[in-house]
Structure formats: structure tokens, C-alpha cells
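# nightly structure sweep
# worker-07 picked up a monomer target from the shared queue
# config: single-sequence mode, recycle default, output format = C-alpha cells
# input follows
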Amino acid sequence: MSNYKLPPRQKMINLLYVILIAMLAINISGEVLDGFATANQDMKKNVETLKVYNGGLEKQLAACGNMDAVQKAAQLKKELLVIDENIMHLEDTIQVVAQEGSFTKGMNVDDDLNAVEAIMLHQQNASELKVAVEAFRKKCLQLTFDETSRKMIGSLLNTDADEKGKSWEERHFANLPVIGCKMMMSKIQKDLWLAFNETLRCVNERVKGNDSLMPRQEVRPVLDNNLLEALVAHLENRNMHGQTVKNKDGHMKMLVMTENQAPLFANYENLISVTALSESPTNLEVSLSNGSIRKEGSNYIAVPDGKEQTAVLTVKSGGKVLARYEYKVMPLPTPVPSLMYIASSGRQREYRSNVPLSQKEIQSISRIKLNMEGGVNTQETVTGFDLMLIKGQNQTVRMAHSNGAELTPEMKQILTKTMKGDKLIFTNISVKGKHTPVRQTVSVNVIPM
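# output follows
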């Protein structure tokens, strides 16, 4: 019996049937994809709104003067930004893997079901993200004393398995198309920034209450009929500066107070409010040791020179000293640099450290951006930096210098020579502000992949 061979036309028809069956098996309706896309856009807008709102809370916290709280909040935000950067990098990687596995290059791959599982579950990136979320949740709870807020943060960042035993990783990334994963990543970001927001609000309320992160015991001042004495009692309870001027018979005739007890930053325009409540009109003369001070509107701008660890604010009237306040002077926080580049998705991103970049992404690096920490805008700009490339094979070094924040043509040429195994370092980054001398910030190490 002779072997029967299908004609080419029938083979093509059979192949088309196989393709059709496969497409029906994995088909995701357009309505579902559109729903994912809409939810993703809404959540990204929420994240940006939260970032702006949180920035306002950080400024309020910095104005309260509790540097311990400011530093803890700044460190918490720094860790959140690292998670943020990792999430954006994972999104870009999933997009690239989906496009590389697509039969039709350049087409939309939002419905791809393989890339998410490969990157997030098989490579255990979801588990690493879960560990980062848990660590962030723990630090938020350490700064939060209000029970309602603690429950809210615990709920937002809950990573426990569900009632059916499905893990956090599976709940978030199993059987998801690319656009569904983007939506889920945006949800995780939104929950993280919400938890940070709740933490900031709690810290602000705690610091405003008694300038401490420890539980507070309420002390109510006993108000006297004398207005000035009542204000003094109130100020003492609020931990504010207040000094009184009395007559020879002990009768209080003037109260001089400043806004808060915040340390002053060296070489920085610190806002100080000086108020005199008096029985008669008073012209104040205000001076600052180890620095300068000027009146601006109803406030004073104090700029310590940083040569000493303290600065004394003196308030006079008619040559007579009314009050003196000693302020602690602290070094101005150094801004943290990041590199602006174009990700594989076509969007502009910030690179800080620890995330590998492709050759194309490295070649798209255009400038250095300064990020202000601790809610203090130092108003500094980049005045220069060096780019250093150390080749992995023969350890040869290529260097170039820029006199600003932008990369020079020579630097961009060096970036084209970068390969996996090389060391690429942006170093000697110099910054300068209106009052600050030229100083250097940390280097940025790029990991080529």
C-alpha cells in the first residue's frame, strides 16, 4: 500500500485550523484588555498625585524641626524609590521579552501570557518584590503608633497567602497578560505610596504634638487671665521658643517668640518667624552670630556660615537685648544624583543604582538629575562630573569631563563602547547652590547587561 501525502493546499488548511484552535484557547477579549489599560492609567495618576501630596507632608515635617523624624522619613522614602525603580525595570523587561517572543515584531503584545510568568514567577522576581514590600511594611509600622493607621498599612501591604493557600506571588502574577501585569504593578506602587502617606501623616501628627516619635501624654496648660502669661504657658506646652520681658515689679510687658526649635542648616536660607507681643509698639533688631540674617516680609531668613556648630539669634529693641536663642547648626543634606535615560519602553526614567541596563539604555543616558532628600530643597545644580569606563577584559580606562549636568559628545561616544562586564562610573559629581560652596555628592555606578 502506497503512502498517501497531503497536497500542499490541504497542509495549509490544516495548519490554519491548528492556529485558529490555539488562538481560541488563549484568546483574551478586547474588553478585558481595555479594562486593564484603563485601571493601569488611573492607578498611575493616583501614584503621581500621592507623590505630590507626600512631598507637602515631607516639607511640613522638615519645618517641625525634629531631625530624627526627618531622617527616618527620608530613609523610608529612599527605600520606596528603590522598589519603585525595580518595578519599572521589571515592567520594561517583561515588555521586551514579550516583544522578542512575538511572531509579529512591532505589534502590540499586551495580551501575551508567557512573559509575565517567565519573568515574575520562574525567575522568582515576584518573591524578591514580596520581600521588599514586607521590609518596607515593617519600617512603616515602626514609625506608626495609631492603631487604625497600623491596620490600614498592614492591609495595604499584606503578603499572606489567601484562604485557598494561593501565595501572594500567584495572586498577583499568575495567568496575567502583559497589560494585566502593568496594572498589578501600578496597584502595588499605589499601595506602597499610600502606606508611606499614612506613615508620614502619623509622624507629622506625633511631631507636632510633642516633637517626639514616642507616645505622648497630653498636658493642658492652666490659662491665666493675663494674656501674655497664658501665651507663655501655651508655648511651653508646644515646645516653642518664648522669652518674656518684665518690669521691675515683675509685671510682664512683652513676649518675644520664634516659630520653632528646628536646627538651622548651614549655607541654607532657613525661615524663622520672630514675633513680639507687647503693651506698646516695638521695633525689633534681629541679628545672627556665625552667619547672616535678613527680614523678608513678616519673616526672617537666617543663613549660618557653617563654621560653627551653633548660631545665636539675638532680638533687640532700642539697643536693649530682649531675647537670645541658640540654634544647633547642621550640615545641609547632600542631594542624591540619578541618571536620566530612555527605557526600552520608550519612556524617560531615572537610574540610581543596582539595576542592570541594556546597551541601548546606557547609550540613551543624557544628563544627571539631583534629587532632594529629607524634604529640604537645597536648590543646588550640577557644576561638573567625570565619566569613567573601565573595560572588563584588559582593564583599560577611558575618561571624560563635563562642566555641567549634560553629557558631552565625547561621553556619549564612550557610552557606545560599553559592554557587559565593564565598569561604568559617573563620579566627582560637583554641586553648588546660591549660598553653598562647591561640594561633591555620591557617585553613580551603572551595571551594563
